[in-house]
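Q: Convert this sequence to structure tokens.
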Amino acid sequence: MPEPLVSIITPVYNAAATLLRACESVRAQSYAAWEHILVDDGSTDATPQILRELASDARVKTMRFANSGPGPALNHGIEMAAGEFIAFLDADDEYLPEHVAAHVRAMQEHPETDLFWGGVDVIADRAEDVMVPDIETGAGLISVYDCVVQGTIFARREVFRELRFTEDRAIWWHDSELVGRVRQHFRVERFSGTTYRYYRNSGTSMVDRAKAELGKAAWA
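A:
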């Protein structure tokens, strides 16, 4: 088995319905030198059993700890990572087959770039599901195509030697908050391809809750 050049981190919380789909998309990658780190944030559904089954693959690492939120789960995964590059995949999303290969190639072709983000294919039931709260202005909505989506972040290991995701559970936009801080120290670019499938119809999410709160505030 090749040494993992890419560490893929998936935080998991009660994702039994979608986790296998996400993991199968990693196994289907055209690029083979990866490890997949699955961090269970205290799931109460069938997720732990699924993780035990997935751990039979030597390329898969799993860990479980008491529910602490996405920030600590992501940071625990980073601490476990052995790869030169660190990538992320949400437990209800999936990679398209060339995701890892395309990003490794982009990193090799652009040594000046430390982090790429972007390149989503959004799966949504309604047009309004593509719109999410605009955290930069603090009001209104913005297309998710113009936002940092956690699973599209692909970075050199050096970035995470200095920075980590916020562990403040009040900040649900921890992905764009991180990238904002990364920009202050490293070079960040938007990825030009479309290699990440983002499911906006997989159930209640932090983004959906934020939209609901935004709606309440608009009518207050």
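Residues 209-220 have pLDDT under 50 and may be disordered.
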